[in-house]
Design brief:
nine-stranded parallel sheet, alpha/beta, 10 helices
Length: 533
């Protein structure tokens, strides 16, 4: 009867050991010298009349319970429950029945992807537990549109991963509470503390850098630098581009890179770059570190074995009288990447490589390199350098940008300089074409006078480039624009009207912001005040 009662109880949805108004008592029958038997009787108050009715008690009942997810309260199937040599698995409802156990027995509960729990049976025959997931699932979304952000990078507990095309991520072996950092091109970086919860939607705020360039010497000229920073504070500007390694190959700050110290490449403009970057962060200014790569007169002169050479054996010199280093040489890659890593650790938001190409001025066809400069080898060299830099910089949480010629937006060959945007787009966060109107000749792209029609040439260039990059969802296009007078035959003065036209064109094309160049860092200040302010 007892066994039938237990079976009936389970079939009716009641668990073993749940009584029906029963009261237990123990009655012993024994001979004068030896205990002959011990019986457990149950007093049933519902059937008792004027006497005591005794029935044989059912055998001890097994321990049972449920295993659930601590965050979602959903049942965990196939969790293992173990006590000594006994081991069972939970069913689809998360329920287990393990067997008869004494009070104080130790039970362990384990399940794939969950933190194990061990406890002792305190009383009764029920022991249910909730296991904490060691995995964490969520999505990264655009805060403005709620669309998923593909390729966003998450950093947590010394681990890095990227989101899928649907913006989802899955973290393994996470602690109970932890911090996660998220970065994606075109968005503000974020850091948040993740506490006990089911899942998480991380919403990134869209961000478009609106930057001006600080020349190498401006960074060390306190009065001029402070005036430009004041301009940033007062206007729509929210970013600055600093030369950390300029056109001559000099470094503007004290460096710890051995080769830079060996060739005495330091020309100190900023004595404490860490403090400088920290001050920019306090002002909510996005800091971009510009590094001129293969145009490096200092390295080429001190290490002629790394220089681009002519057929006569001398060093190649461009139209500015500056030497270049060989883009095929891994020593040159390592040198520039070491500088990039150093400034990334100082807190810059972005490292931007300029002159990341082969030289284009003069009789470049007679140049001699360490490898034969075919189109394939040139593209492989530039893409290879960016891939190597990406591998070192990505774990540091810094964005990587690359400056390219404006014509690369339309040309599918490498133009003889190794820049073919589809080949190295996977390794950059920001592609930065230099679409200065003065860089286009009359009739370019069907525009009779690009210098006089800055809106048209900028809008067309940026739009076409964005279309070509559509299959690379992690890359954003942010052009370099012109705030300097035309250097061509027209000598057209560029001022507020021309700057505004370029800004509007970049926005209309869908660019992720813009950067204005002036070699002397003198800008048309009125052009940067937002409309309506």
């Amino acid at each position: 009867m007892a066994g039938k009662e237990a079976a009936s109880s389970r079939s009716e949805g009641r668990r073993p050991g749940r009584g029906r108004g029963l009261v237990r008592a123990i009655i012993l029958a024994a001979t004068p010298l030896v205990v002959a038997a011990a019986f457990v009787f149950v007093l049933d108050s519902s059937s008792q009349t004027d006497g005591v009715t005794g029935v044989l008690a059912p055998p001890p009942k097994p321990v049972w319970g449920y295993v659930t997810d601590e965050y979602s309260s959903s049942p965990i199937m196939s969790a293992t429950v173990r006590s000594g040599d006994l081991a069972v698995e939970t069913d689809a409802d998360g329920e287990y029945v393990i067997g008869v156990l004494p009070k104080g027995a130790t039970l362990s509960f384990t399940a794939f992807g969950y933190e194990p729990v061990t406890g002792s049976l305190q009383s009764g025959i029920n022991m249910s537990v909730a296991l904490r997931p060691r995995t964490f699932t969520g999505r990264v979304l655009d805060a403005a549109t709620t669309k998923p952000v593909a390729g966003a990078t998450l950093f947590y507990n010394g681990t890095m991963m990227t989101t899928t095309v649907t913006g989802t991520f899955h973290l393994e072996d996470v602690p109970r509470d932890f911090k996660v950092k998220v970065a994606a091109a075109g968005y503000k970086k974020m850091e948040t503390e993740v506490v006990r919860q089911k899942a998480l939607d991380l919403k990134l705020e869209p961000f478009a850098a609106k930057a001006i360039y600080f020349s190498f010497y401006t960074t060390g000229w306190d009065e001029r630098r402070d005036k430009l920073l004041s301009l940033v504070d007062r206007t729509e500007l929210n970013a600055v581009v600093f030369d950390v390694k300029g056109d001559y190959g000099y470094l503007s700050y004290p460096t710890g890179v051995p080769l830079a110290r060996e060739i005495q490449a330091e020309k100190i403009m900023v004595k404490d770059m860490d403090a400088m970057v920290a001050s920019l962060k306090k002002r909510n200014i996005y800091a971009i570190a510009r590094i001129v790569v293969f145009k490096d007169d200092e390295l080429a002169s001190k290490r002629p074995d790394l220089a681009v050479k002519t057929r006569g054996g001398g060093a190649y010199v461009d139209n500015e009288g500056l030497r270049w280093v060989d883009p095929f040489r891994k020593e040159v890659w390592d040198y520039n990447i070491a500088i990039a890593v150093e400034v990334a650790r100082k807190g810059f938001d972005e490292v931007q490589f300029d002159y990341v190409r082969f030289p284009s001025e003069g009789s470049v066809g007679s140049n001699v390199y360490s490898k034969q400069p075919t189109e394939e080898s040139r593209v492989a060299a530039i893409a290879g350098f960016l891939a190597a830099a990406h591998a070192r910089l990505k774990p540091l949480g810094v964005f990587l940008g690359a400056d390219v010629f404006g014509w690369t937006m339309f040309r599918e060959d490498d133009m003889g300089i190794g820049q073919q945007i589809e080949q190295f787009a996977p390794y950059v966060d920001y592609l930065c074409p230099m679409v200065y109107p003065s860089g286009w000749g009359p009739g370019s792209r069907g525009i009779s006078d690009p210098v006089a029609r800055p809106y048209d040439i900028v809008e067309q260039s940026a739009k076409y480039g964005i279309e070509r990059l559509a299959r690379f969802p992690t890359v954003r296009l942010r052009p370099w624009l012109q705030d300097f007078d035309d250097y061509g035959p027209s000598k057209r003065r560029y001022g507020v009207e021309e700057v505004l036209a370029q800004k509007k064109a970049a926005a209309a094309a869908g660019a992720a912001g813009w950067m204005f160049w002036n070699a002397s860092a003198i800008y048309s200040e009125a052009a940067y005040t937002p409309e309506g302010r």
